[in-house]
Design a protein that fits this description.
Blueprint lengths: L2 E5 L22 H9 L3 E8 L2 E13 L2 E12 L8 H16 L3 E3 L7 H9 L14 H12 L2
Parallel strand pairs: 4-5
Antiparallel strand pairs: 1-2, 2-3, 3-4
Length: 152
């Protein structure tokens, strides 16, 4: 088994046509995939065994008025059959290299404290854990609630 790591370019969306189970959380949506690939701030590294994607790591480069450009690692996924072989680490390293080339000063990722495999992965590439609290907002529900309140 030879797994190759590559950063996908916008014209390589077809690579995502053959993905092993559990690499992504949900089935891929062709329109969303195309929009992701077309945005130069969005990046995806994939691990391929022959023509099959067996791992991926996605990221976004962004900047803010008071900070240099950063690389936010959105997600890392490796098919269970391919886990614990260094593929996640290689995917992250590919994104880190890209981030440096683009001028990013920092990369960061978040995960749950009890996600031991993810914590081990991030520590294996010299990540430093920081305590923080994350809040999520379901914008679809808020929109539905606001719409229903306006109808009353």
């Amino acid at each position: 088994m030879t797994v190759t790591i590559r950063l996908l370019q916008p014209d390589q969306i077809h690579v995502l046509d053959c993905v092993a189970p559990d690499v992504f959380d949900y089935p891929l949506n062709r329109a969303w995939s195309a929009a992701f690939m077309a945005d130069p701030r969005h990046h995806i590294a994939v691990a391929c065994d022959d023509q099959r994607v067996v791992g991926m790591a996605s990221a976004v480069t962004y900047f803010h008025p008071d900070k240099p450009m950063q690389l936010w690692i959105n997600e890392v996924g490796v098919s269970p059959r391919y886990q614990r072989q260094g593929i996640g680490r290689q995917l992250l390293q590919a994104l880190f290299t890209l981030g440096r080339e683009l001028g990013c000063q920092e990369a960061w990722v978040g995960t749950e404290a009890d996600n031991i495999p993810a914590c081990r992965l991030y520590e294996s590439v010299a990540g430093t854990a920081e305590d923080f609290v994350m809040y999520s907002f379901n914008l679809a529900k808020e929109q539905d609630r606001a719409s229903s309140q306006n109808q009353i």
